[in-house]
Amino acid sequence: MEKRSLKNSLIAATLALFATTATVTEADAQQVKNVVLVHGAFADGSGYKGLYQELTKKGYHVTVVQNPLSSLEDDVKATKLALDKQDGPTILAGHSWGGTVITEAGNHPKVAALVYIAAFQPDNGESTLKWAQSLPAAPENGILPPDDNGIIYFSKEKYHAGFCADLSQADADFMYASQGTIYAKAFVANITDAAWRHKPSFGIVATEDKAINPDIERNMYKRSNTKITEIKGSHVVFVSQPAKVAAVIIEAAKSVSK
């Protein structure tokens, strides 16, 4: 009787240990709650306000990088500095030119997955310009040749229709006024180690995009086996459809938290 009682006690203790271990393991599993957002050309980080609000109200810690837009190297450095400050695994998301930046910066050890928002996604040895010229531009596209300082601008007359047609005129005017200045040399810089070759990738096609031909986005994402979500919106779909863009980022976070 005593032996049976001792055996039952050992079984109960073992089961309790397994239950405790399972609970600890589940509690200690790393949930990706950090998001770093990288803006593109002809814009700045202020455009991410709506997306920031969507993500933070769902418990995500969001950092917005202010790219200097002076070169690919400088933008990658700014992004990596933001990643250094994260306290755990992070989703790295980039819009437009920011896609090229996260492709180079995304090999940072804290990056768990990449999200391309109507963004460029070059491969090793490829530049942004290569893909920008791979298909005809829309008539509304207002990107101008470099000026005497080597800076590229988006035509003010075409900015609303060609960059952010689904925003109000007032919002378009603010975006134009607050944009950074990007040097042409950034667009011809080649990728050295494409992070999408090593990290899970998610891509958003803005179906009404006039700044990047949506088929260019589709072609890049298909080439890399990126998971594609199509959202009806202009090039700044993250401004006009922040909840839908947030849903893709959250999907990426959950996919690497399992």
From TrEMBL:
Residues 35-248 form the AB hydrolase-1 domain. Residues 1-24 form the signal peptide. It comes from the Bacteria. One of its GO terms (molecular function) is hydrolase activity. The keyword Signal applies. The keyword Plastid does not apply. Gene3D superfamilies: alpha/beta hydrolase. PANTHER family: AB HYDROLASE-1 DOMAIN-CONTAINING PROTEIN-RELATED (PTHR37017), ESTERASE_LIPASE_THIOESTERASE DOMAIN-CONTAINING PROTEIN (PTHR37017:SF11). This is Hydrolase.
